[in-house]
Amino acid sequence: MVKLSGRWMYPFTIRIPLFPMAKDVTDDEVQAHMKPVLESLSFAPRTDILKRLMEQKREEREKKASRHIQFLKNVYLHPWLTVTEHYASLGLGSKTGTRVKADLLRWKWVEEIPIATGRRGKQPIILSLTDIGLEKLRESGIQARRRGKGGAKSLWWAHKLAEIYEEKGYQTKIEGFAEGKATVDLELIDPEGRRIAIEIQMSTDHAMENIIKCLKAGYDEVIIASEEDTILRGIEEKAESCLGSEARARVKYKLLKEVLNG
DNA sequence: AAAAGCTATGGTGCCCTCTT
DNA sequence: AAGAGGGCACCATAGCTTTT
């Protein structure tokens, strides 16, 4: 019984006839003796087998890689999902999901971003595409645009807050990926029909533009929300000097974790 | 007030069975 | 044999509570 690891798919049997052989036999004599025997045997050229094997290996690799690409695509399309939510939405168990994620991290296709929720327990983790990851998506024929770094985080907050407010009976609308459009991160309509805009600020950048944009759009209330108190204070300070008292009264400043847990 | 302990929450690892 | 997947124990963490 012969089994060749890796090069021949199945074990096979061979028969070796007993043949008394003189000790001083030459190679030529052996070849001459074996020639008619070898010619009578059928054989498959090894190149075909190798081709088939390589094909099979390639298919396996592609199948595996496609799972990684699927995961990557999911991260791109739903950047607000946490790690385990990604697993669930892809139908991966925790084991498989963890493995795929570990690969993506090892290859530096994605980065982990923990979120300080202000709640007890481990911080949920979301994933963000790296430049390499973005390139991989494009190589796979998926149109993918570069998105801002704080993007995934603010989307997570927007979705989480939307969840919270929906439970309280608000209508909610989350900003999509509309390019260049002046939309707010999260739009709320309370049960009485008051329109509220929530802008999630990861830094003080563009804060005043956002506030003015929302005020002009006619929201009854504008909430500036941030993870950090220092950011809120910084924005508020600017607003104090830029806005009139009427406008100032419509703007509120809240810590994200307090909105989430309050 | 600092330290230690508790606990809810999110994520991970091990071991097992089943399938291919 | 290797991979998939399920079950379950375990780890890490941060806020809360109790002890010192």
Protein model, in words:
The chain has 262 residues and is of the alpha/beta class. It folds into two domains: 47-146, Winged helix-like DNA-binding domain superfamily/Winged helix DNA-binding domain (Arc Repressor Mutant, subunit A), CATH 1.10.10; 152-261, Trna Endonuclease, Chain: A, domain 1 (3-Layer(aba) Sandwich). 49% of the residues lie in helices and 14% in strands. The chain is built from ten helices and seven strands. It has helices at 27-40, 46-77, 83-90, 94-106, 131-139, 151-167, 207-216, 229-242, 245-250, 256-261, and strands at 110-114, 125-129, 171-174, 186-189, 195-201, 221-226, 251-255. A five-stranded mixed beta sheet has the order 3-4-5-6-7, with helices on both faces. A two-stranded antiparallel ribbon has the order 1-2. Mean pLDDT is 78; it is low at 4-8. The chain binds a DNA duplex (20 and 20 nucleotides) through residues 82-84, 92-96, 98, 116-125.
Give the helix proportion (percent range).
Answer: 40-55%
CATH class of the largest domain: Alpha Beta
**Radius of gyration computed on alpha carbons:** 32 Å
Number of helices: 10
Report, as a whole number of angstroms, the end-to-end distance.
Answer: 72 Å
* CATH topology-level name of the largest domain: Trna Endonuclease, Chain: A, domain 1
Strand order of the largest sheet: 3-4-5-6-7
What percent strand? Answer: 5-15%
* Whole-number count of domains: 2
SSE pattern: HHHHEEHHEEEHEHHEH
Structural class: alpha/beta
| Low-pLDDT sequence parts | 4-8
CATH architecture of the largest domain: 3-Layer(aba) Sandwich
Mean pLDDT, to the nearest integer, reads 78
